[in-house]
Design goal:
binds zinc ion; 5-stranded mixed sheet; alpha/beta; binds 5'-O-[(R)-(carboxyoxy)(hydroxy)phosphoryl]adenosine
């Protein structure tokens, strides 16, 4: 397998509540092609519990991975023999699900007699724009999903500098919790956005945590508490008030993210010889139109292009895992992992920068 040749990679993603398998081909000239991309969401399994239950997630991955891999190969019109490399998410994420996916990948690589690549989930998100838009580093990345909230300077394949991260809740989590306490349907983000469209964004003066701070970190826990207090004070809540709370929450979040990104761009410009030419947004929350609109304006003010992968490739998928492995391979930065490679619940993409906080539950989101 020479780095200059084209390569066909089967990717597996099981770090949270989506089971995904994809087959991606990278041509020698760097062009990417998705041959298949199968995603099965577990929302229904977790809905009754109000959040993702790790044991249920691991079991659900196990139950469908076999079928999904067969479907991905069939959709791609590939046999196992056509696969050059098997890649799986090895972290960060829920350890049970990671173990299921990585162990499955090991057996598949053994059966197919291919090398195995253990991929960082965040690297998958970080490099997706290479696959979707042919955009290569350097760029500034805002990753905002139910599990992650961070800004990174993507310097090169395999070279990432963390600029900012959340010190408490992830942004998607803040949307989901807001929806839950207002009694809106899951997933929360789209529900809040829908209600916000009919609301008055000035109706509630919600806080803007971290605004103006030097380090471009995020915090959403205080905002969530303010939303709860507003909802309690307005009980029994009407659709009108729900819409106003959603609009005011969305406005507060957008102000926070815009301010933090502005700071991250300034830091990134100082950390590289040339200012990064693009702002890339990824993760489920990147689908939010108010946020997107604001960031488009902000990027333009800084002379940057705003690039966002299409929503199905913004949210968790396995094409991004296969692609990250293919890019690493092409850059000569893929050391095939041994079959003893371990899953990691915590795995910062930037292993050099000091952690913003110690350990525990929040670590996964960093
Ligand atoms: O990337 P993703 O599919 O999964 C991970 O969490 O890794 O992101 C899902 C998150 C959920 O919190 C969901 O509420 C949020 O993205 N989301 C949105 C929107 N669509 C999805 N948040 C705000 N506005 C949206 N339109
Ligand atoms: Zn993700």
């Amino acid at each position: 397998m020479s780095p200059s040749a084209h390569i066909t990679v089967l990717g597996i993603e099981t770090s949270c509540d989506e089971t995904a398998v994809a087959v991606v081909r990278r041509a020698a000239d760097g062009a990417g092609e998705i041959l298949s991309n199968v995603v099965r969401s577990q929302w229904q399994e977790h809905a009754a519990f109000g959040g993702v239950v790790p044991e249920i997630a691991a079991r659900a991955h196990l139950e469908c991975l076999d079928d999904l891999a067969a479907t991905a190969l069939k959709d791609a019109a590939c046999e196992l023999d056509d696969i050059d490399l098997v890649a799986a998410t090895a972290g960060p994420g829920l350890i049970g699900g990671l173990l299921v996916g990585l162990t499955f990948a090991k057996s598949l690589a053994l059966a197919a007699d291919t090398p195995l690549a253990a991929i960082n989930h965040l690297e998958g998100h970080a490099l997706t724009v290479g696959l979707t838009d042919g955009v290569r580093p350097p760029y500034v990345l805002l990753l905002v999903s139910g599990g992650h909230t961070q800004t990174l300077l993507v310097r090169d394949i395999g070279s990432y500098v963390r600029l900012g991260t959340t010190v408490d809740d992830a942004l998607g989590e803040a949307f989901d919790k807001t929806a839950k306490l207002l009694g809106l349907d899951a997933p929360g983000g789209p529900s809040v956005e829908r209600f916000a469209a009919d609301g008055n964004a000035d109706a509630f003066a919600f806080p803007r945590p971290m605004l103006g701070r030097d380090a471009p970190h995020f915090s959403f826990a205080g905002l969530k508490t303010a939303v709860r207090r507003a909802a309690e004070a307005a009980a029994p809540i009407t659709d009108r008030t729900t819409a106003d709370i959603c609009a005011s929450f969305q406005a507060a979040v957008t102000d926070c993210v815009a301010d933090r990104i502005e700071r991250a761009i300034a830091l990134a410009s100082g950390a590289s010889t040339a200012p990064p030419p693009a702002l890339v947004i990824a993760g489920g929350v990147a689908a939010n139109r108010t946020l997107r609109g604001r960031l488009e304006g902000l990027a333009a003010e800084h002379g940057l292009g705003l690039i966002a992968p299409p929503p199905p490739l913004c949210t968790d998928n396995a094409a991004m895992i296969a692609w990250a492995a293919a890019e690493r391979h092409a850059a000569g930065k893929l050391e095939a992992d041994g079959f003893d490679v371990a899953a990691r619940a915590r795995w910062p993409l930037d292993e050099v920068s000091a952690p913003v906080f110690g350990s525990g539950r929040l670590g996964v989101k960093a």
